[in-house]
Amino acid sequence: MKKNTYAIDHANKTITLTKAYAKLANTPGTKEFRELSRLHQAFPEYDIAMRTATVTASKNTHDGLTIEMMEKIIARQPNSEELMREYNEFVDLWGKKVNDKKNPGKKIVRVHYGKVKSWFLKKVPNYLDIDFAQATT
Fold first, then answer.
1. How many domains does the chain have?
2. How far apart, in whole angstroms, are the C-alpha atoms of residue 116 and residue 91?
3. CA 116 from chain center: how many Å?
């Protein structure tokens, strides 16, 4: 499904709208309103539904796992030098330079937390075995 649009499920006879698309389709005269009208005419027996987020109960949470904490845990690994080199390469590849809010005029590299966490969990799957109190020192 494209972002901010709709999906047609012929098996279940439903047209599923994203929240953003439904909001636009709610205004007469918009492109989305005309599109949805045509869809409803083409498939009058189909139900129109809003897309909902899928919540999984088995999602692992990683409370307290910040980028700084990941760096400290990497430093405590047996292959810490190799991991830190890989981490720095990862940050160079995916990071972007932004102005440091604490030190005006200075640039720092920021990386999206989700990307770093994903990389970290692949490289250090046993991180839960580490005592967080020790890792903070």
1. 2
2. 8
3. 11
Q: pLDDT, tens digit, for every residue of 7-17?
A: 999 999 999 99
Query: Can you give the length of the chain in residues?
Result: 137
Q: 80 and 131 in one domain?
A: yes
pLDDT band at residue 82, thresholds of 50, 70 and 90?
Answer: very high
pLDDT tens sequence across 24-42: 999 999 999 999 999 999 9
Look up the pTM and report it: 0.52
- CA 85 vs CA 88, 92, 120, 126, 127: distances in Å: 5, 11, 13, 19, 18
- Amino acid found at 107: K
Q: Which of 30, 28, 32, 10 is nearest to 19 (CA)?
A: 32
**Tokens linked to 91:** 């940050």
135/72 Cα distance (integer angstroms): 6
59 lies in some domain: no
29 Cβ neighbours under 8 A, 6+ residues apart: none
122 in a domain, yes or no?
Answer: yes
Strands 96-99 and 6-9 turn out to be unpaired
